[in-house]
Amino acid sequence: MTHGPGTTSVHEGSEPDPATGAVTRPLLRTSTFRFDTVPDLLAGARGERPGFYTRYGHPNFGAVEAKFAALHGAGAAVLFASGMAAFGGILQAHVRAGDRIVALADLYGGTRVLLAELAARFGVGVTLVPRHDDDALTRALPGARLLIAESPINPTLRIVDVGRLAERAHRAGALLAFDNTFATPVHQQPLAMGADLVWESATKALGGHSDLLAGLVAGRADLVEPVREARKVWGAIADPDTAWLLERGMKTLVARLDRQSRTAAELAAWLERHPAVASVLYPGLPSHPDHELARRQMRGYGFMVAFDCRGGLEAARAVAERVRLIAHAPSLGGVESLLSLPVYTSHAYLTAAERAACGVGDGLVRLSVGCEDLGDLQADLEAALGAPR
Ligand SMILES: *Cc1c(COP(=O)(O)O)cnc(C)c1O
Question: Does domain 5-251 have CATH number 3.40.630.30?
Answer without folding.
Answer: no
